[in-house]
């Protein structure tokens, strides 16, 4: 008799989540559901089943895991989706379902990089006036408030910002701004062209890690530009981790 098909919930929103869902959907031993937050108007849909929208906190997630007879959860959300990761840890624990965090490694500086690592977007904003006057912000469309919200530092209004995001920003915008709507990945050549064309002199990014968004770091290095890199929030304590989809597949296989 063959083993029962195992239902895996992938908390998605990343390239790694899509790759994992693709591998699981192709394997008859698994049924895979990917959950997306619903932030993007037109998300890239992964293989397998997809559900969209919040669960209603850890209790809602635990109820969903029980109702859908989920065997394992893989939290493959973005490294900065800290609320979802905390809710995944609490919800999976409450439902007694094993949880793995799939998180790609963060970026490391190489010779030539001029990085300023900071703990938060607010710290990044505070540092900017000392680093340059024309800023490329690639921190995400929902994270502009330290640069644009009512509590922003007054010095920031003297700077010029280029924001880049897939969908247009939702909240207030900086005083001097160009909004660029674009979906990566971008090549090093494209990033160099953008930095030169807009005469950018400082870049702000989260430490998302991964190859897809790294060309902006290479381009900044080639032009000798400073980069403000926001550190990641910690992974919930006690949760097993994998750094790539192959590691997640091995973890799942070991749980049969
Ligand atoms: P967040 O602050 O950690 O999440 C806020 C709430 O959104 C969560 O409590 C949860 O609601 C819901 N949520 C988040 N991810 C979800 C998912 N995959 N499936 C179902 N509900 C989800 O997260 P965020 O920073 O807003 O990011 C939202 C999504 O965008 C994530 O899936 C992440 O992978 C992706 N993303 C985030 C970033 C970033 O920089 N933050 C960048 C690229 C992609 P309930 O508590 O009601 O379940």
CATH topology of the largest domain: Rossmann fold
Bound molecules: NADP nicotinamide-adenine-dinucleotide phosphate
Largest sheet: 6 strands, parallel
Order of neighbouring strands in the sheet with most strands: 3-2-1-4-5-12
Shape: elongated
Q: Give the C-alpha Rg.
A: 20 Å
Question: Helix share of residues?
Answer: 25-40%
Instruction: List SSEs in N-to-C order.
Output: EHEEHEHEEHEHEEHEHEEH
Spatial separation of the terminal alpha carbons: 14 Å
Quickly give the structural class. alpha/beta
Question: Count the helices. How many?
Answer: 8
**Average pLDDT taken over every residue:** 96
Number of domains: 2
Give me the CATH superfamily of the largest domain.
NAD(P)-binding Rossmann-like Domain
**Unreliable residue stretches:** none
Portion in beta strands = 15-25%
Secondary structure tally: strands: 12
Description:
The protein is α/β, with parallel strands linked by helices and 256 residues long. The protein has 2 domains: 6-105 and 234-255, Rossmann fold (3-Layer(aba) Sandwich); 114-230, 3-Layer(aba) Sandwich (Rossmann fold), CATH 3.40.50. The chain is built from 8 helices and 12 strands. It has helices spanning 15-25, 57-67, 82-95, 121-131, 145-148, 188-197, 215-223, 245-253; strands at 6-11, 30-36, 49-52, 72-75, 99-102, 114-118, 134-137, 160-165, 177-181, 202-206, 226-230, 240-242. Helix 6 (188-197) crosses helix 7. The radius of gyration is 20 Å and the shape is elongated. The chain starts with 5 loop residues before the first strand and ends with a helix. Residues 11-14, 35-37, 39, 54-57, 60-61, 77-78, 80-84, 87, 140, 206 line the site of NADP nicotinamide-adenine-dinucleotide phosphate (NAP). NADP nicotinamide-adenine-dinucleotide phosphate binds next to strand 2, helix 2 and helix 3.
